[in-house]
Amino acid sequence: MRLYAVEMQRSSEDIQDELLVLRCQGGEPEAFRLLVSRWQTRLQRLAMRMTGDRDAATDLVQEVWLAIVRGLRGLEDPARFRVWVYGITTNKCADWVRRRVVRRDAIPDLRRAAVVGTEAKGPGELEEADQIIRLRGALRRLPQELRMIVSLHYLDGFSVCEIATVFDVPAGTVKSRLHKARAQLRKALEERQHERTGQENS
């Protein structure tokens, strides 16, 4: 029963996208504007997570929409739009990362962004904010491919099979990489906690 409810919840979103895609393929400009309004923020958020660069994310999402415009009529199964558009986005972001010369000083300080506005919060909320900071830091240290898979699975709700389709790998490979990513995140968080405990005791 629980699985059925989840499928119904997800299919409602998928059906809306599918209908909009069909209308776009039929040449309705208004349908495309609605599709953009539904997906712009999600794609921007994904690109930001993958690149760590707000300006680059904005430019890449523009490229994604150009690719969608060019390829939408050729999308044979509109029900696959969600996986298709995420695949385009992850590929473009991955290409950008590969082209870019990696510099540590170019990685945004997620800690600074996470603590904005926490000064007036209570102890419990500050502890939660600190946990978010540590988790974001641990995610940032994951290899790019693992970071993308974790983001798609835990933040965007993609199933293992959907991620396998996006990356064109077997589902078993995705499961293995998720297991590896969780182990690395756990290790990074534990190490960070030990560091903090040592600092507090010194």
* Residue share in β-strands: under 5%
> CATH topology of the domain at 1-101, anyone?
Rna Polymerase Sigma Factor, Chain: A
**Radius of gyration over C-alpha positions, nearest whole angstrom:** 19 Å
Q: Estimate the helix proportion, in percent.
A: over 70%
SSE sequence, one letter per element: HHHHHHHHH
Question: How would a textbook summarize the main sheet?
Answer: none
Shape descriptor reads: elongated
Number of strands: 0
Kindly report how far apart the N and C termini lie.
Answer: 53 Å
- Class of the domain at 1-101, according to the CATH hierarchy? Mainly Alpha
Given as residue ranges, the uncertain stretches (5+ residues, pLDDT < 50) are: 1-10, 101-126
The number of helical runs is 9
Q: What average pLDDT do the residues reach?
A: 76
- SS-derived structural category: mainly alpha
Going by CATH, the homologous superfamily of the domain at 1-101 would be RNA polymerase sigma factor, region 2, helix turn helix motif
**Which architecture of the domain at 1-101 would the CATH scheme give at its second level?**
Orthogonal Bundle
